[in-house]
TrEMBL record:
CDD domains, per the entry: cupin_OxOx
Keywords: Apoplast, Disulfide bond, Glycoprotein, Manganese, Metal-binding, Secreted, Signal
Species of origin: Hibiscus sabdariffa (roselle)
InterPro entries: Cupin_1, Germin, Germin_Mn-BS, RmlC-like_jellyroll, RmlC_Cupin_sf
Protein name (Swiss-Prot/TrEMBL): Germin-like protein
Domain Cupin type-1, first and last residues per copy: 51-196
Signal peptide: 1-18
Record carries keyword Aminoacyl-tRNA synthetase: no
Family that this chain belongs to: Belongs to the germin family.
PROSITE patterns: GERMIN
Localization of this protein: Secreted, Extracellular space, Apoplast
Lineage: superkingdom: Eukaryota
Amino acid sequence: MFLPILFVLCFRLSSSDALDFCVADLKAPQGPIGYACKTSELVTVNDFVFSGLREGNTSNLMKAVVTSAFSAQFPGVNGLGVSVARLDLAVGGVVPMHTHPGGSEIIVVVRGTIMAGFVSSANKVYYKALRSGDVMVFPQGLLHFQINAGKTPASAYLSFGSPSPGLQVLDFALFANDLPSDIVKTTTFLDDVQVKKLKGLLGGTG
């Protein structure tokens, strides 16, 4: 009698969607560990498919665009520890120094030449020109960058070790805010003209 009961119990547990995934309920608030789970009755195959990694519009200040498939855009990755994105760089395009506090990143170049690198916590720099088929990893939380180093547009796919890796761009953190220019000048060793120029360029005040 014990074995049949155990078999039925194991079958029920193994067939439970709740043990397989936690599709993000985007209508619920996001907490420190991600979104709440959508009830299994509302989950569809479309929650596990993302069709938005098309070439992006690079007509902006940085001549670059990242199209993200994080949990907010791709509910199926919620809770799974992975996500993806696409990077497009026009000629002269750059993704400035930035960090992802929530996860490490891997870049896979599929077109053009991208100069990419990161700075370790010991301030050692690791960088290289990457071409189609090259892969590089950026450890979690470290400053890193990507630059189009060629004469044609460049593209890459990005993979992250988090469904919501977060983003902080150094230039925007310093100059796209209302921190008084005197404080920025003192902490960056830049002169007042440079600080105000960068604040004006990136939308900061103060």
